[in-house]
Amino acid sequence: MGLKTRKRFGQHFLHDPGILKRIVEAIAPARDDAIVEIGPGEGALTRPLLERVDKLMAIEIDRDLAARLEAEFSPSRLSLACADALTVDFSAFPPGIRVVGNLPYNISTPLLFHLAGYADRVRDLHFLLQKEVVDRMVARPSTPEYGRLSVMLQVRFAMKKLFNVGPGAFRPPPKVESAVVRLVPLPGAAVPENFAGIVRKAFSARRKTLRNALPLEKEDYEELGIDPKLRPENLSPADFVRIAVRALAGS
What we know:
seven-stranded mixed β-sheet; alpha/beta; two-stranded antiparallel sheet
C-alpha cells in the first residue's frame, strides 16, 4: 500500500497468502458472525474475512491505515473505529463477538489482560502473537513458561496453540517466531474480585515460597490443602481461585 511501518505501533504486516488462508480456516467464519478485527493494518486479513462475512468491525490506531481502509470498503461492509484497542470498551459490541487480529507484540500482554475482562461477552478469540507469549499463555504449572499470564488467562479461557509462523511471513520480518492461538471462554468461570491482585503478588515474588509470597496464615494453607512450601509456579489456576476466596473470607 506504499505506507511505511511505524515502530511506535509495533507494526509487522502479515503478507503470506498461505498463512492468511490457514488463519481464516482456523476462524471458520459464518456469513452472519459478528467479528471484530484488532489492527487490520493494510487489510491482508480483512479482505479474506470480508469474503466470508457480511460485515466486519475493526479497530485501527494508525490514522493513515484507517483512512486507506475506509476508502477501500464501504461502511456497510467495514465498520472501522480509529482507536487504541487498549482503551476500547468491548462491551459496546454485540454479545457473542469473535475477536481476531495480528496483535502488536509491544502491547500484546496488556491487551490480553484487557480483553480477559470481557470474556463473558465473546464467543472466541484468534490471535497471531509472538511465539514466546503464546507458549506462556498455554503453559502448564511447574514449567519454566508458566506464570502470571498463564494463570490470568487460563482461569477464563480454554486455549490452544494452533500453528507457528516464521518471520518471513511479515513485512518487515520480526526478530522472533510467531504463533496463532485460539481462546474460548470457559462457561461459568467465576473469578473473585481480588484474584488479579493475588496472582500479581504471587508472581512478583516468583522464587519465594507461598508462605513468604502471600498474606495467608498456616491454618489457611491447611484448610486449603496446599503446601505453603510450594512456589507460585507450582499451583494451578483453580488453586489461585481458592486462595483468593480464602483471602477474601479472612479480610
